Q: What sequence folds into this?
């Protein structure tokens, strides 16, 4: 035991006698950072701009601080601070109020005596910033306000092409001690870039430019949306929207909306697609033309279908456009199988003068009648439709096992085997066109718990969409357009409770509502596109209520 203690004692003695590492002074006399503050103001920190050789630091100090206050900065009572090497010394001493109304020379001496000189030039400057800017203009007759995006010297308003900006009210906000060359609420023409200036309290003038530019285009999906019009009841002119259940479908071609009234014979009325105002009636293709349905194809050509009860003739007519005086009958077929009638719902996909498919649902069955157009002609043998039995869920005792009167079968391609959507009372289902098997269905809350027909499928800006008329009233006299991105089939069953639901239900129009009940639950949707495909125009007619139109853009 004694030997152990002796060894430990020797070890401690050796440790106690070890010499510390020597510390040598460093020659570093660099100025790592420098700034100016205000006495007693914690957050006031003003940084420099250095000369190329870093021997001069230029520091702008606000004329007032805070800048919107009347507290003028006293240049003789500023606090200069700096970060320097640990063993360096700076002269004069920093961290106390000093006079910076004229340049101050600092000397930084490193630990080994090397000296470095830096001149600090502080300057009191006014504010020439544009804080914000807005314009007011009319869009579709309604006052609209837009806030600018300020990028450097450009004050940019991102406005959709086609909006008149020749008479807009401009409001520009600058520092309270500065002035702007544009009078408050001035009315200006922003059809071309317009320069203006901001002058600070110290006389500095900065030039800016007001610019109107189209918004940046999105690579996918819809961006900015705007309402084109709402026309309720008689406000549409030409007798307006009646309350006798007659307006059952609509199509769009060129400058016109076509609304079909299922009177006998029917009426085909043209409305301006931008304002919703009645223009005139279209001539009928035949005296006995009795129709529930007209649809437009991808080019604006029109396809009208007659209603055929059991034993009647189902006919299809093709118009080149809404002003075509002589539509062509392209199909006539005697309905010998659709005992509930054929023609209450007809949908097309494609170009009826080239390649297209036509789907018609047979009322009170679960059958879809299909025709194909190739090179502008019906190619079904003897005009006889292909008949597919769609999967349905029985929901009402009165029509168990069938999809009712107004089911919608909506094709998504020009092939019968391609996916289609089946929209009927029980659900909105995505169906495999080859097997006619349901692959998925909308969540009930997403489809709407009241009613959700008709529907419309279209492609726009690299995305695929299904729009539905979603009813918001149990009297079926209120509803809106609900638009869903169905590009990803996995999204179709998404619940509104999903955090990503906004990427599925991407747009909802305002609701329109009327006084009269819409007991038949009818209405329709249609869509057209601008020539450059930067905008889609979507419209809805709700029977007994009115019509509404929106622009969907890629911006």
A:
């Amino acid at each position: 035991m004694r030997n152990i203690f002796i060894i430990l004692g020797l070890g401690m003695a050796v440790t106690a006698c070890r010499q510390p590492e020597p510390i040598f002074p460093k020659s570093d006399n660099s100025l790592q950072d420098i700034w100016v503050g205000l006495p007693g103001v914690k957050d006031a920190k003003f940084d420099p701009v250095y000369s190329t050789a870093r021997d001069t630091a230029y520091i702008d100090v606000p004329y007032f601080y805070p800048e919107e206050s009347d507290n003028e900065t006293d240049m003789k009572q500023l606090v200069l601070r700096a970060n320097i090497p640990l063993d360096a010394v700076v002269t004069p001493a920093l961290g106390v109020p000093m006079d910076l109304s004229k340049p101050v020379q600092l000397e930084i001496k490193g630990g080994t005596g090397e000296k470095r000189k830096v001149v600090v030039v502080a300057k009191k400057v006014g504010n020439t910033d544009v804080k914000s800017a807005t314009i007011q203009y009319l869009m579709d007759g309604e006052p609209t306000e837009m806030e600018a995006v300020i990028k450097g010297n450009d004050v940019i308003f991102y406005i959709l092409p086609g909006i008149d900006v020749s008479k807009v009210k401009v409001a520009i906000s600058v520092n309270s001690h500065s002035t702007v060359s544009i009078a408050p609420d001035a009315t200006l023409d922003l059809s071309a870039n317009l320069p203006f200036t901001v002058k600070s309290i110290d006389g500095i003038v900065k030039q800016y430019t007001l610019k109107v530019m189209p918004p940046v285009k999105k690579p996918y999906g819809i961006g900015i949306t705007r309402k084109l019009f709402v026309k309720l009841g008689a406000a549409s002119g030409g007798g307006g929207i009646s309350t006798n259940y007659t307006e059952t479908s609509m199509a769009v071609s060129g400058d016109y909306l076509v609304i079909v009234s299922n009177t006998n014979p029917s009426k085909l009325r043209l409305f301006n697609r931008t304002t919703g105002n009645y223009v005139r009636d279209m001539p009928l293709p035949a005296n006995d033309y009795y129709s529930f349905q007209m649809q437009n194809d991808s080019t604006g050509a029109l396809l009208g279908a007659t209603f055929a009860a059991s034993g009647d003739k189902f006919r299809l007519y093709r118009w080149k456009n809404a002003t075509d005086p002589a539509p062509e009958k392209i199909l006539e077929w005697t309905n010998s199988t659709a005992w509930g009638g054929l023609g209450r719902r007809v949908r097309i996909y494609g170009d009826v003068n080239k390649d297209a498919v036509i789907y018609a649902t047979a009322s009170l069955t679960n059958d879809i009648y299909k025709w194909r157009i190739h090179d502008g002609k019906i190619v079904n043998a003897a005009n006889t439709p292909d008949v597919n039995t769609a999967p349905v869920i029985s929901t009402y005792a009165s029509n168990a096992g069938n999809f009712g009167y107004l089911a919608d079968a909506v094709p998504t391609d020009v092939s019968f085997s391609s996916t289609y959507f089946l929209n009927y009372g029980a659900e909105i289902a995505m169906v495999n066109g080859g097997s006619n098997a349901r692959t998925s269905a909308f969540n009930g809350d997403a489809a709407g718990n009241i009613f959700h027909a008709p529907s419309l499928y279209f492609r726009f800006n690299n995305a695929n969409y299904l729009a539905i008329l979603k009813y918001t009233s149990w009297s079926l006299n209120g509803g809106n357009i609900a638009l869903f991105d169905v590009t990803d089939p996995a999204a179709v069953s998404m619940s509104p409770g999903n955090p990503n639901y906004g990427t599925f239900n991407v747009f909802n129009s305002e609701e329109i509502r009327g006084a009269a009940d819409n007991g038949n639950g009818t209405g329709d949707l249609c869509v057209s596109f601008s020539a450059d495909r930067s905008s889609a125009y979507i419209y809805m007619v709700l029977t007994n209520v009115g019509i509404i139109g929106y622009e969907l853009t890629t911006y």
Notes: The CA atoms of residues 301 and 320 lie 5 Å apart. Residues 2-16 form the longest helix (15 residues). Confidence is low (pLDDT under 50) at residues 1-15.
